[in-house]
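Just scan my protein:

——
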Amino acid sequence: MDGIGPQLPLTVSTSAGAYALITSYQEQVKQNFKNLLLTSPGERMMNPDFGVGMRSFLFEPKIQAVPAIRQRITRQVRKYMPFIQINKIKFDSGENLSESDFMDSPLLSINIEYTVPSLNLNTTLILQNEDTI
């Protein structure tokens, strides 16, 4: 079976060759988008600006982190993945909390609704706390 690229994290596959492969452009876009979100600026050689750096916001107060994350995601997508249109970025603490309880909660997930018109793709990428650790 032909693949577009390796599935990350790398896993051994007996059916696709040495490693499991991504076989659709939709999954490749989603993996690349998640990679953009989790890569810290300075981590990628020869491209020190690449990445949102979600891990750098782990211990920041939400009142400052939420707008900074939103701005960082928007700017990085515009620069490195301009074929993606972000429709909505929603922050959630896993429960229906008031604004003050949300800001005090240690949990944070990010739901990013996006569209890739060239692939006729309209989907959501969800980042949970465990994705950033």
About this structure: The chain has four helices and five strands. The two ends are 33 Å apart (CA to CA).
